[in-house]
Design brief:
It contains six helices and ten strands; from the N terminus they run ααββββαβαβαββββα. It has 221 residues and is α+β, with helices and mostly antiparallel strands. It folds into two domains: 46 residues, no CATH class; 152 residues, Glutaredoxin (3-Layer(aba) Sandwich), CATH 3.40.30. Strands 1-10-9-4-5-6-2-3 form an eight-stranded mixed beta sheet. Bound molecules: nickel (II) ion. The site of nickel (II) ion has 5 residues, from α3.
């Protein structure tokens, strides 16, 4: 039984890795890699419901997500355990992001407002995938623009890479033609976690505040 489960887990990892590879190949011009991945995920038999509004519900025991050790925007070393007991909404991005990240963080902020008093039972987490530029101080300024409850997380490149790996987040440096500085190409799913730290829902890029609030309410139980 344990062996079968292990085999299943390995299969799932291979499928996900293949999915990312395929998504990179089949993504439409200008389409975010994460969107292409979500599109593919919807087509994989047993890969979850099509990524419609409301997101992809993950079965209990799914191996997306897990432990992380990072540094918050006040400079404090934190781990996933610091946020247990609350639901969490987790988003990966970078503060120099011109469009996707600000839009998603704005939607997270609006979702927190929709939750009213329940928002106190939610940890809204923004993890940078650009730790080189996104220091704690930079993150502190940035998350405050969106909502006072949002927690910015950074860390060493290794800590960030390990966290991104656990959540199957794709990111890479890219320098647009004519630009003097790099940007980060990155997948843009929003993860909704239950109070036990397990991922409950994977929301595709552009999920509305209502979608996010609904997933958080479901995660709170
Ligand atoms: Ni972004």
């Amino acid at each position: 039984m344990v062996r079968a489960l292990r085999l299943l887990a390995v299969l799932l990892i291979v499928l996900l890795a293949a999915g990312w590879g395929a998504a990179a190949l089949v993504r439409a011009p200008g389409e975010e890699l994460g969107t292409a991945f979500a599109r593919l995920l919807g087509r994989v038999p047993g890969g979850g419901a099509p990524p419609a509004a409301g997101g992809i519900a993950l079965p209990p025991g799914s191996n997306i997500g897990g432990a992380f050790a990072l540094v918050d925007h006040t400079g404090r070393a934190v781990t996933d355990r610091d946020y247990r007991g609350r639901a969490a909404v987790l988003f990966f991005g970078f503060t120099f992001c011109p469009d996707v990240c600000p839009t998603e963080l704005g939607n997270v902020a609006a979702a927190l407002d929709l939750l009213g008093a329940d928002a106190a039972r939610v940890a809204p987490l923004f993890v940078t995938i650009d730790p080189e530029r996104d220091t704690s101080a930079k993150l502190a300024d940035y998350v405050a623009l969106f909502h006072p409850a949002i927690i910015g997380l950074t860390g060493s490149p290794e800590q960030v890479a390990a966290t991104a790996r656990a959540y199957r987040v794709y990111y890479a440096k890219a320098t647009p033609p004519g630009a003097s500085d790099y940007v980060m190409d990155h997948s843009a799913f929003t993860y909704v976690l239950g109070p036990d730290g397990g991922v409950r829902t994977l929301l595709r890029p552009g999920a509305s505040p209502e979608d996010i609030a609904r997933a958080l309410r479901a995660a709170l139980g």
